[in-house]
């Protein structure tokens, strides 16, 4: 892998938008994202500018990492959202401790299996550790076996917590967490 893994910069909102739109056109998008291509495409530029600025390098509550090729093209992304203790998550559960929540995981199909996703996850998890978060979690669609297998390989384990996929599809998502080495099993 010859990519640079780094946080996005505020002025890169057009590239953030392009990569997100590409991710939403992926055949697996309905299993991985809660947004459609059409909805994202309709959003005005100021939406993308704000989305980028709140997840750019130096942001404290969220951080988006990208995998950048030597030619400047982006081949993947992951975003970390910080969930504060005492806040309510999207399932309506109270968050017990300050934690990272990985979302928006995407790697271009031709880069899957090359180490790009692992490098993105390493950067995101490292940011969470440096930020002092208690744990890192994510949710995976019950029918997204490929993603779940990758998450397990990356050290995430299922917690048994599940919830409905927003939108009323009848499908469920499973919570997976990465516990720090000092955590009890």
TrEMBL record:
Q: Which InterPro entries match?
A: Acyl_CoA_acyltransferase, Bact_Acetyltransf, GNAT_dom
- What residues does the N-acetyltransferase domain cover? 3-181
Keywords, in A-Z order:
Acyltransferase, Transferase
Q: Keyword DNA damage, does the record have it? A: no
Q: Note the PROSITE patterns from the entry.
A: GNAT
Please indicate which superkingdom the organism of origin belongs to.
Answer: Bacteria
**Classification via CDD domains:** NAT_SF (cd04301)
UniProt-listed Pfam families: Acetyltransf_1 (PF00583)
Q: Which SUPFAM superfamilies match?
A: Acyl-CoA N-acyltransferases (Nat)
Q: This protein is called what?
A: GNAT family N-acetyltransferase
Organism, scientific name: Streptomyces griseoaurantiacus
């Amino acid at each position: 892998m010859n990519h640079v893994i780094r946080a996005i910069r505020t002025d890169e909102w057009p590239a953030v938008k392009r990569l997100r739109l590409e991710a939403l056109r992926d055949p697996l998008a309905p299993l991985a994202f809660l947004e459609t291509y059409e909805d994202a495409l309709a959003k005005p530029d100021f939406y993308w500018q704000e989305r980028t600025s709140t997840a750019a390098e130096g942001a404290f509550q969220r951080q988006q990492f990208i995998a950048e090729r030597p030619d400047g093209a982006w081949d993947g992304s992951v975003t970390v959202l910080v969930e504060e203790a005492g806040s309510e998550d999207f399932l309506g559960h109270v968050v017990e401790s300050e934690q990272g929540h990985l979302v928006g995981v995407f790697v271009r199909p031709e880069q899957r299996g090359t180490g790009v996703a692992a490098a993105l996850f390493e950067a995101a998890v490292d940011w969470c550790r440096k930020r002092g978060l208690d744990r890192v979690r994510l949710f995976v669609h019950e029918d997204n076996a490929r993603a779940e297998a990758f998450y397990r390989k990356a050290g995430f384990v299922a917690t048994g917590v599940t919830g409905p996929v927003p939108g009323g599809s009848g499908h469920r998502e499973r919570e997976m967490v990465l516990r720090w080495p000092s955590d009890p099993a």
